[in-house]
Every structure is written in structure tokens, then in C-alpha cells.
Design a protein that fits this description.
heterodimer; A: mainly alpha; 9 helices; B: mainly alpha; about 0% strand; globular
Chain lengths: ~200, ~375
């Protein structure tokens, strides 16, 4: 075993342990903020595994999208409704835990069988390409040839989501609300009424 | 790409001749470039802090630091020592784990990003295929650390500061990435080395700033916003939020935020120099320096001179941009949070998209000038 292989094995061990511990923390911890931060740890570990597999672009995209966007948005949502409250004990909680555990073990068994049953050997031609050329070029070629339809469908889906978000965000500029804002007297600033602001303060 | 002086080969051979096996010699080489860049980043941080204080003082007709060393050059080091010896206070009812982890998460990605900053053709830690994209991805981790420290401080100003920082950094990442994309489109590569190579050959006339003036402005504004420099330092706006997410921090943990912000400023200035100002290229093309002096390109002393010239040029451009950033701090008033978000989403984003479209059209029309 030479230096590169040794580094690879050690990195894999560290990343895998980090990922499993963080993932267990996400599920088992009661504090939702800890779960959200640990989710970021899981995503970063996955991105490290991608780097070990020579998929550098996928690794960077994983960090950018899952850590930088998805996880930050989850944290944002949690912190905007920043309520620290204890959960009321649920009767027959053990039954729920048992059912969830059974489902998880079932999924694990299914995925485990799939991992063992699949032949993971790469063709020699693909192997040399993966080690030599940067994965960016390969991914780009696939996007515009055999994966063109899924790629375009995904972008249309994202566009729809964006249009929906803009429509929702612009709601307060609709004409019926405009008549409300005109009622403010000339001496006050045109902003939301005091009751609304006080309510916003209380929820924090 | 010419080979240049093979520092790694020379070092490995030298250690090998001392009786160390070749594998161990290679392992000894590995941490060296990282340590040098880390040291360089730390020195750059001290210089940036000193420049900031001196230029700010000059802008306000003061003298600024002057007693610690000549012209107060050791003032930042003295500041650092002071912070090192301060008591480490964790506020009551704060979350000690998240409170400690937050500043570390803010600092780490900034230092890791230095892996892709080139100071010469072969002078960078790693020439990744993903290159500049790695920096964009890494800089998106920072808001998590800010949210973490804002949340764990158990202080409403900290929480507000953290939320603002995350909102700001998400908003300005998009114009930043689109401006970089226009550059990448012209150089056909994400690698920072290829981006500089594509600007070489014509001296100052070949730099990307002439081909991407709009992209340059967008990138500079967005980079300042990502660094939370003064026109956009809303997350720590002292008149509104005490000091934002770092209100409760003191001692070394505060120093981590401080270091992070200045190293990030240095990094952004370096990246602007690389993307738009030709990186290590001189304003006058010096490819034929060897031919003018009548010596071969491979002469060792000539290569050392070109390498130092390259490092000098990169740093000169980066510090010029830093100077502009400090001047901007004392020239432009702080924007409001709604103005900030409007500027990002309603102005910079459409302009960046238009710039991208225009670059694509120009690339198709004039492939020789815009990288066919």
C-alpha cells in the first residue's frame, strides 16, 4: 500500500464515521437546531466521499447546493420560528419508535441487498477517463446529449418554483392592499401597523 | 505550460540523498506548500489590518498606529497578542458547543479556499479541474457558521445579525457566480491557471477587465458584500445591532471572526486580481524577457526573477484593490437592509444575466477575442 492509498483509506474511515455519527445525531437528538446543524455535517461528509471517488464537480455542487442553500434555508426557517419548547409526552411512544425502527431496518436491508447484488466494476475505458479528464467536461457533454430531456425538465421545474415564489412574495403589492396603505395619515411612516410588529416580536 | 523550476522534484531528491526513502520524502513535501500559503495568508492578514488602520487614519486626517514598530507596523501583532490573552467568556444560557464551533466554521472555508489561488504558473497548492467553482462552494459554508454563532449567543441582536448575514450572503452569491460564469465561458475552463493563461500575451490590454467591465463591477460589489465590508456591513451594523453576530464574543473567539473577515477580504482581492486583472501577468508582456536579455528561458536565475515578478504583480494588484476597498469604506454610507436586498436581486442579478448573454453572443461573433 503506497502513500496515496493509505491516505484514501484513512480519509474514507474518517468520513464514513463522521457521516454515520452525524446522521444518527440528526435522527436521535431532541433539539431541532442541533439536528439541522448535524445535517450540514452529513452533507459535507458525503461531498468528501465524492472527492474520494474522483467526482470533484459533484462534490463542489453538493456543498454549494445542499450545505450552502438547502441547509441554510432549513436553519433560517427554524430560527425565524425560534421557539424553545419541550415536547409533550405522547402516549404509546414506544409503538411509534418501534414502527419507525422497523421501516428503517427494512429500507436498510433493501439498500444493502442492492449494494451487494450490483456489479460495481467499471469498464477499463471509463476508469482511465475518470482518473484523467476533469469530470466537468464529461458531465457537460452528457447534459447536452443523452441527458438533455431530464436536464431541461429539471430547469423548467425550477423556473416554475421560482415564478411561484415571486408570486407569493409580491402578494402585498396587490391592488386591495394598496388601498390599505393609502389610509395612513401623513404624519406616520408608510410601514406595517404597530399591532403586527408587536405580534412579530412576541413570537420570537 | 512550461515546467519551470521543479521545486518538488529538487526537494524530494535532496531529502532522498540524505538517506530518507522516496515515499517518506514525498510525504515530507506534502505539508510544505500548505504551510507556506497558510503563513502567507496570516502575514497578508496582518498587512491588511495595518493598511486598513493606516489608510483609515489618513482618510480622517489622523496619524493612526505609530508607536509599535516603525509606522506602527507591528500594531496588528500587538492587537492579536492582546486578544490571545483575554479571558474566554461564554455568556450565561448560551450554547457552549455551538458558541465555540461557530467562529471555527466561519474561518475554515476561507483558509481552504487559498488552495486554488495561483501566484504563478506552477505556484499554487492544487490545480483542480473545478478551480474557481470550489471557492464559490466553500464560501457558501460561511453563513452556517454565522447562523450558528448568532443563534447560540442567546442574544436577539446576535440572532438578527446572523440571519442578516445568511440572507445577504445567499443573495450576493448568485450575481457573484454569474459574473464568474461569464469569465469561465471565455476561458473554457474553471481552473484558475487557465483563466490567467487566457489573459496573457498582450500585457495590460489582454486583461479580462476590458472584455468584462460590467462583470468586474458586479463581481467587486458582490465580493464586498460577501466579505461584509462597509457599504454592506449590515450583519454587524453597530448603530442598529450592537455588533451583530459577534456581540457576545471576546478574546480568541472574537479574533477568529476578525481574522476571518480580513483574510476573506485578502482572498477576494486576490481573486479579483486573478479573474479580471491578469493574475501574475505584468502590464507589459514579459514573455520574451529571456530573449531581450539574451539568455535561455530555462536559465535558473531568470526563472527565479520571473517567479518573484509574478508573485509581486499578484500581490500588487490585490493590495491596490484592498486600498480601494478601504477608501470605499470611508466614502460610501451604509445601505439599508431593503436597499441591499433590492440591489442584489433586482439590479445585480438581471445585469449579471444580461452580461452572461452578451458574453455568449460576443463569443460566438468574435471567437478570436472572446475565447472561441
Amino acid at each position: 500500500m503506497n502513500l496515496a492509498e493509505g491516505v484514501q483509506v484513512v480519509s474514507f474511515g474518517v468520513l464514513a464515521t463522521m457521516m454515520i455519527v452525524a446522521a444518527l445525531g440528526v435522527v436521535l437528538l431532541n433539539n431541532i437546531v442541533y439536528s439541522a446543524f448535524l445535517l450540514g455535517g452529513v452533507f459535507i461528509s458525503i461531498s468528501g466521499l465524492y472527492i474520494l471517488l474522483n467526482a470533484d464537480f459533484v462534490a463542489a455542487a453538493q456543498i454549494l447546493i445542499y450545505v450552502g442553500a438547502v441547509n441554510v434555508l432549513i436553519l433560517f426557517a427554524i430560527m425565524l420560528v425560534n421557539k424553545r419548547e419541550d415536547y409533550a409526552p405522547v402516549s404509546n411512544r414506544w409503538l411509534r419508535n418501534l414502527a419507525a425502527g422497523l421501516v428503517c431496518i427494512g429500507v436498510f436491508a433493501l439498500l444493502g441487498t442492492m449494494v451487494i447484488a450490483t456489479d460495481w466494476q467499471l469498464e477499463p475505458a471509463n476508469l482511465t477517463a475518470a482518473a484523467g479528464v476533469s469530470s466537468v467536461v464529461k458531465i457537460g457533454q452528457h447534459f447536452f446529449s443523452d441527458f438533455l430531456l431530464p436536464f431541461e425538465l429539471a430547469s423548467v421545474l425550477l423556473l416554475m418554483a421560482m415564478v411561484g415564489a415571486i408570486v407569493l412574495a409580491r402578494r402585498d403589492f396587490l391592488p386591495e392592499d394598496l388601498s390599505l396603505t393609502n389610509q395612513t395619515t401623513s404624519l406616520t411612516l408608510p410601514e406595517k401597523s404597530k399591532e403586527l410588529a408587536a405580534l412579530g416580536g412576541k413570537t420570537k | 505550460m512550461n515546467s519551470g523550476i521543479d521545486l518538488q522534484g529538487t526537494f524530494v531528491n535532496f531529502i532522498n540523498n540524505l538517506g530518507v526513502p522516496i515515499g517518506a520524502a514525498k510525504a515530507l513535501w506534502l505539508p510544505l506548500p500548505m504551510a507556506i500559503v497558510l503563513l502567507g495568508a496570516a502575514t497578508g492578514l496582518l498587512i491588511a489590518v495595518w493598511l486598513e488602520r493606516k489608510i483609515s487614519a489618513a482618510a480622517q486626517q489622523r496619524i493612526g498606529p505609530e508607536y509599535v514598530g516603525a509606522l506602527g507596523i507591528f500594531q496588528p501583532a500587538a492587537d492579536g497578542l492582546k486578544l490571545l490573552f483575554k479571558e474566554d467568556v461564554v455568556p450565561g444560557k448560551a450554547d457552549p458547543w455551538l458558541f465555540t464551533l461557530g467562529p471555527i466554521i466561519v474561518l475554515l472555508p476561507v483558509f481552504v479556499s487559498f488552495a486554488i489561488v495561483p501566484f504563478g504558473e506552477n505556484m499554487l497548492i492544487t490545480d483542480l479541474g473545478t478551480g474557481i467553482f470550489l471557492w464559490i462552494a466553500l464560501s457558501s459554508i460561511t453563513p452556517i457558521g454565522l447562523l450558528m454563532s448568532g443563534y447560540s449567543s442567546n442574544n436577539k441582536y446576535s440572532l438578527l445579525g446572523g440571519l442578516r448575514a445568511a440572507a445577504q450572503s445567499i443573495s450576493y452569491e448568485i450575481p457573484l457566480a454569474l459574473a464568474v460564469l461569464a469569465i469561465v465561458m471565455m476561458s473554457n475552463s474553471l481552473s484558475t491557471i487557465d483563466i490567467v493563461e487566457q489573459q496573457s500575451g498582450y500585457g495590460i490590454l489582454g486583461w479580462n477587465i476590458w472584455r468584462q467591465p460590467v462583470g468586474f463591477l458586479i463581481f467587486w460589489i458582490a465580493a464586498l458584500a460577501e466579505c461584509e465590508r462597509l457599504p454592506f456591513d449590515l450583519p454587524e451594523a453597530e448603530e442598529e445591532l450592537v455588533a451583530g453576530y459577534q456581540t457576545e464574543y471576546s478574546g480568541m473567539k472574537f479574533a477568529l471572526f476578525y481574522i476571518g473577515s480580513y483574510v476573506n477580504l485578502n482572498l477576494s482581492a486576490l481573486l479579483v486580481a486573478i479573474l479580471y486583472l491578469g493574475g501574475w501577468e505584468s502590464p507589459i508582456p514579459l514573455e520574451n524577457l529571456g530573449a531581450w536579455l539574451g539568455v535561455s528561458q530555462d536559465t535558473p536565475w531568470l526563472q527565479v526573477i520571473t517567479a518573484s515578478l509574478g508573485i509581486g504583480m499578484t500581490l500588487l494588484k490585490a493590495y491596490f484593490l484592498l486600498f480601494i476597498a478601504v477608501l470605499l469604506r470611508w466614502t460610501v454610507p451604509r445601505v439599508r437592509i431593503d436597499q441591499l436586498l433590492n440591489l442584489g436581486w433586482k439590479f445585480l442579478l438581471p445585469i449579471a444575466l444580461l452580461n452572461l448573454l452578451l458574453t455568449a453572443a460576443l463569443k460566438l461573433a468574435f471567437p478570436s477575442a472572446f475565447g472561441g
